[in-house]
């Protein structure tokens, strides 16, 4: 008797904190997964209430937030299936991307990991330039390579994925609905990046702080065509420069 091969199974993972605005749509976009796991950093809004009332099958855990890498690795430890699909709460898997994911993992030979190209939205409007035209992240990977590099607290990446593939359909990234929300993220990420630099014994230098800040604005606004995005492009370029400036401000405080 010929043995029927089982379809590969997917664990969809989300790490969240105060995502009551996003969590319902995010989970709905990955309901095709065989299990959904949410690791919460002790939200104070209605995030867990929404999950518990509308998605009883979702597995919920809580862990105190230290940094993004530790949180992602902790979330992975709960996954039971061969494939990991990681989603941020402000991202959405489209029906077209869902179909591509399911077709790809059924192939006889697959990559160990896949980049998802992303369409970026800021304050409700799509951003077409400002560096977003090349935006992609690894979001789908086999559990055998599922470990994030612990030397990075932010902009974390997998340790050993070899030569990743790239899926053709886009993941939607609804980044921030307000300037204030993005500013808070810049400050949070800058503190984590400053800590990384401090532990690597990178010295604070005023010249480097100013030059990196200026170059980040120039790169995003001119080299990556942010000016074609109008006011949104200018705002994103400014926040990119601010991120570098604040990182070195916090690094200076680490040495104080």
Structural summary, described in words:
The structure is a single chain. This protein has helices at residues 23-29, 47-54, 68-76, 95-105, 179-199, 206-223, 231-255, and strands spanning 10-16, 35-40, 59-62, 83-86, 91-93, 113-122, 125-127, 136-142, 165-176. It is of the alpha/beta class and 256 residues long. It has two domains: 10-176, Spore Coat Polysaccharide Biosynthesis Protein SpsA, Chain A, CATH 3.90.550; 179-255, no CATH class. Strands 1, 2, 3, 4, 5, 6, 7, 8 and 9 form a nine-stranded mixed sheet that branches. Helix 1 links the parallel strand 1 (10-16) and strand 2. The radius of gyration is 19 Å and the shape is globular. The mean pLDDT is 94. Belongs to the glycosyltransferase 2 family. WaaE/KdtX subfamily. Residues 11-109 form the Glycosyltransferase 2-like domain.
């Amino acid at each position: 008797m010929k043995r029927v091969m089982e379809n590969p199974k997917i664990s969809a993972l989300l790490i969240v904190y105060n995502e009551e605005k996003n969590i319902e749509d995010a989970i709905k976009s990955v309901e095709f997964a065989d299990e959904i796991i949410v690791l919460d950093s002790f939200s104070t809004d209605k995030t867990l209430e929404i999950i518990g009332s509308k998605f009883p099958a979702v597995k919920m855990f809580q862990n105190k937030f230290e940094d993004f890498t530790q949180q992602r690795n902790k979330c992975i430890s709960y996954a039971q299936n061969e494939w990991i699909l990681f989603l941020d709460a402000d991202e959405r898997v489209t029906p077209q991307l869902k179909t591509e994911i399911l077709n790809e993992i059924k192939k006889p030979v697959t990559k160990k990991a896949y980049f998802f190209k992303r369409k970026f939205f800021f304050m409700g409007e799509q951003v077409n330039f400002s560096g977003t035209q090349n935006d992609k992240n690894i979001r789908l990977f086999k559990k055998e390579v599922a470990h994030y590099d612990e030397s990075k607290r932010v902009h974390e990446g997998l340790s050993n994925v070899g030569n990743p593939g790239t899926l053709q359909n886009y993941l939607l990234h609804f980044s921030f609905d307000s300037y204030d929300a993005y500013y808070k993220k810049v400050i949070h990420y800058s503190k984590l990046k400053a800590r990384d630099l401090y532990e690597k014994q990178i010295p604070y230098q005023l010249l480097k702080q100013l030059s990196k800040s200026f170059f980040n604005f120039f790169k995003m606004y001119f080299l990556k065509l942010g000016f074609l995005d109008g006011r949104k492009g200018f705002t994103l370029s400014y926040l990119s420069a601010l991120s570098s400036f604040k990182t070195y401000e916090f690094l200076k405080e680490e040495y104080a």
